[in-house]
Here is the input.
Amino acid sequence: MIGNDIVDLALAKKESNWKRKGFLDKIFTEKEQIMISKAENQELMVWNLWSRKEAAYKIYNRETQIRAYIPLQLECFNLEIIDGFYFGKVVIKNCIYFTKTAVKSQFINTIAVVNSQDFDTIKILKNLENIQKYNGIPSYIENDKLATKPISISHHGRFKQIISI
Amino acid sequence: MNKQEIIEKLKNIVKPYIKNQDAFDKLTESTDFINDLQINSANLVDVILDIEEEFDIEIDNQSMERMLDVKSAIDIIETKLSEK
Here is the structure.
């Protein structure tokens, strides 16, 4: 299973006021709020953590079929920065998902996987060709058959990303 | 406050965040904030904070988890108002 999320930073700035009273408390745990307050660029950290939660939620939602607004239950933990990517973990109940986040000047992008070695086999698809949705979940169709290849699509503002594994 | 009054207030609250005007115009209790109105998931926090301010209630984390459609929002608002 995979999940992805992309945040158009210019659009996020326009759409959301993360400094609004109560905003951070509703979606970030105490530990995450400390990460934000200590960050050199707090706004980037807000969307960095948010995109991790969103990408991880996509897997959780598909695995459990539970649909809920649960940003506080999806807690982000940092591992390390390698080659400019933020590698981390998102934990919810007894599920652990691994995340890889790219922070660029115009956007933030997270890919979440169940096994960390899956990062090596992620493919970026150029378009929605051969992709069909079943019960709201996109899958890649190969040779007219429903393959088990999971797809995840994220679109925000100027940016769109389709990934497969 | 009756249900119709709650729905009217709720419509005013969600209006700035919707991306699908057609679904908004046809809003019913089964309208989904994300799938139908296409409210950005980060803006759902704003909807929740706006509801808290407008109705002078506190939406606890457990209630927030269900806050995905008009029907759940009405249920939560009615419950919180009755507890006041």
